[in-house]
Each structure stands twice: as structure tokens, then as C-alpha cells.
Amino acid sequence: MKKMVTLLAVVGLFVFSGCSDDDKDEIFDTTNYVFEVNKVDFGNNGEGITGRFDYALLPKDVLLVYRLGGVAPNGRDIWVQLPEAHYYDNGTIFNYKFDFTQDDFKIYLDGLGLNNIPNDMRYNQTFRIVIVPEVGSTGVYAKKANTKNEYSDYYEVIRKYNLNDSNVKTLN
């Protein structure tokens, strides 16, 4: 009888140790986590661009958007994280903003006096969209993510999360 109980215990151990309801072992292709949207023009109502992803984001993925703000003296692009606020003496106040779902994104302007925004801020804008995979409390990159402030530096995000931006995929 002792042998039978021992055998059942061993079999039970193998059966229950194979059960798991988490997907932490799933491997995701990380080749296209950086996208670029070029030549974005904003209308007087703030309407910008809406786009779709080739695949659905996971629930714990974080989407970050950066606007090309210029070029540094060393030739490196300057990427400014959204939302990005601008204030003018004439009362014009606006923000570059974005929202997203698992399937799509929208980049738009929000504020007062949108029809008074200078042309160089309204037309021909370039944005980088970065998907940081699984940044949740239990996600793959959770241990690396402590505060939202660490996302402000585009190059630091790329380095920290080991993302490849050498072959950025253009969405438009």
C-alpha cells in the first residue's frame, strides 16, 4: 500500500508541475518594435494621422511616441516624447498627443488656437513609435521599468530594452 501511495504522489507531482496558466515562456519576435510615420500634417481641428499595426499589441505592451524635434550639432536626431506641450504669447496653446489600442494608434493636436500654430510645427512632422514589449507588473521587461520618466530619452529606451532601431519600419 505504501508503494501505491508513493507512486500516486510521484505521478501527481509530474501531472501538476506541468500545468501552468502563465505565458511567460512565450517568445516574441522583436524585430519590428520601432516604426516611423513621416510627413504628418495636422488640420485646424487638430486631426493628424491614424494608423494600424500589422499585429495586435499584447495587453501589457507600452506604446511610446516621439516627435522629431530637430538635429543636434553632432548630427544625431532629437526625439521629443509625446505628449509635448507648446505655449505662445498670442494665446495659442497646443499639445502633440497620441492614443492607441491593441490594433491602431492616433497622433493628433489638442489645445487652444490650433489654427494659429506655426507651419513648421503643423506640417511635415515625423514621429517614431516605439513598442516596449510587456511592461507590466509581471511582464518580460517589468524589472527594467521603474518609472514613466525613464521613457523621455528615446535613445535610452532603445538601449535599455534592447530594441533594434537600425531598420525602422515606415508606416506611411
Offer a concise description of the structure.
This protein has 3 helices and 9 strands.
Provide the fold topology:
Layout: H1 2-17, E1 34-40, E2 49-52, E3 62-71, E4 77-81, E5 84-87, E6 93-100, E7 104-112, H2 119-122, E8 125-132, H3 154-160, E9 169-170
Parallel strand pairs: 1-9
Antiparallel strand pairs: 1-8, 2-7, 3-4, 3-8, 5-6, 6-7
Can you give a write-up of this model?
The chain has a 5-stranded mixed sheet. A hairpin with a 3-residue loop joins β6 and β7. The protein is built from 3 helices and 9 strands, in the order αβββββββαβαβ. The chain is α+β, with helices and mostly antiparallel strands. The chain is globular and about 45 Å long.
Please describe the structure with a list of short key phrases separated by commas or semicolons:
172 residues; five-stranded mixed sheet; four-stranded antiparallel sheet; 9 strands; 33% strand; disordered N terminus
Total number of helical segments? 3
List the uncertain runs.
3-31
Instruction: Describe the oligomeric state of these chains in a short phrase.
Output: single chain
Largest sheet, order of strands side by side?
A: 4-3-8-1-9
Report strand %: 25-35%
Radius of gyration computed on alpha carbons:
23 Å
Class by SSE composition:
alpha+beta
Average pLDDT value?
Answer: 78
Biggest beta sheet attributes: 5 strands, mixed
How many DSSP-defined strands? 9
> Percent range for helical residues?
10-25%
Distance between the termini: 71 Å
The outline comes out as globular
Q: Give the ordered list of helices and strands.
A: HEEEEEEEHEHE
